Amino acid sequence: MDPRLRAMLRLGVLVAVVAALLILFPAVFRFAEGAARSVVRLWWLILLAGLGVWLVWGVGQRPK
């Protein structure tokens, strides 16, 4: 089997499994949707956390 065909087949199976799970468990879908909306509304908080991590661990290091 061609590696490209195998990769496309795996991707197709993964998409089908995720779609089936979302249809079978609508509560999980609502949770994922709510989490995505929260991330969209609070993107600035994620950016600030990333900046803080960079400032704590990235700025204090000397160049090599």
What does this structure look like?
- The chain is mainly α.
- It has one domain.
- The chain is 83% helix and 0% strand.
- It has three helices and no strands.
- α1 crosses α2.
- The longest helix is centred in the N-terminal third of the chain and has 22 residues.
- The protein is flat and about 50 Å long.
- The N and C termini lie far apart (46 Å).
Summarize the structure.
Helix content is 83%, strand content 0%.
Which properties best describe this structure?
64 residues; 0% strand; 3 helices; flat; single chain; mainly alpha
Instruction: Tell me the count of domains.
Output: 1
The proportion of residues forming helix, as a percent range, comes to: over 70%
Compute the average pLDDT. 82
Poorly predicted sequence stretches spanning 5 or more consecutive residues:
none
Largest sheet, strands/sense/barrel = none
Portion in beta strands = under 5%
Count of individual beta strands? 0
Radius of gyration: 20 Å
Question: Helix-strand pattern, N to C?
Answer: HHH
Structural class: mainly alpha
Helical stretch count? 3
The global form is flat
Distance between the termini: 46 Å
Topology:
Blueprint: H1 3-24, H2 26-41, H3 43-57
Helix pairs in contact: 1-2
